[in-house]
Amino acid sequence: VQLQASGGGLVQAGGSLRLSCTASGRAFMTYNMGWFRQAPGKEREFVAVFSSSGRSTYYADSVKGRFTISRDNAKNMVYLQMNSLKPEDTAVYYCAAGRILPYSDPSKYNYWGQGTQVTVSS
């Protein structure tokens, strides 16, 4: 599976962005699709995941109520709608595909996109 993330940019606090992740390869539907982020000097952290079953989504507490993850299996796409952005959301955002729990552990994901920069100004 190859992943490519896009949609990042510079936005003012309170604004919105929609990230997209395009997956190529087979068996997209069998992967949990997650979003992670990494700010300068910090470890990569879990943001959200959409399970392979299509029935479950999970979010980090820091983004709950502001971010929404969705996936379109017919198009091999996963999205992250980010609303009410804050300066602390500034990071490089990565999409990832994996099959093993726990969802929040980046080491459980086998495939990663190249990352897209999100910068939120105050």
Gyration radius, in Å: 13 Å
Overall pLDDT confidence: 96
Query: How far apart are the termini?
Result: 37 Å
What fraction strand?
Answer: over 45%
Number of strands: 11
Output the helix-strand order.
EEEEEEEEEEE
Shape: globular
Low-confidence stretches: none
Major sheet = 7 strands, mixed
Write the layout of secondary structure elements.
Elements: E1 2-6, E2 9-12, E3 17-24, E4 32-38, E5 45-50, E6 57-59, E7 67-72, E8 77-82, E9 91-98, E10 109-112, E11 116-121
Parallel strand pairs: 2-11
Antiparallel strand pairs: 1-3, 3-8, 4-5, 4-9, 5-6, 7-8, 9-10, 9-11
Task: Describe the protein's architecture and organization.
The protein is an all-beta fold and 122 residues long. The protein is 0% helix and 52% strand. The protein has no helices and eleven strands. It has strands at residues 2-6, 9-12, 17-24, 32-38, 45-50, 57-59, 67-72, 77-82, 91-98, 109-112, 116-121. The strands form two sheets. Strands 2, 4, 5, 6, 9, 10 and 11 form a seven-stranded mixed sheet that branches. The protein has a four-stranded antiparallel sheet with strand order 1-3-8-7, with no helix packed on it. β4 and β5 form a beta hairpin. It is globular and about 40 Å long. The mean pLDDT is 96.
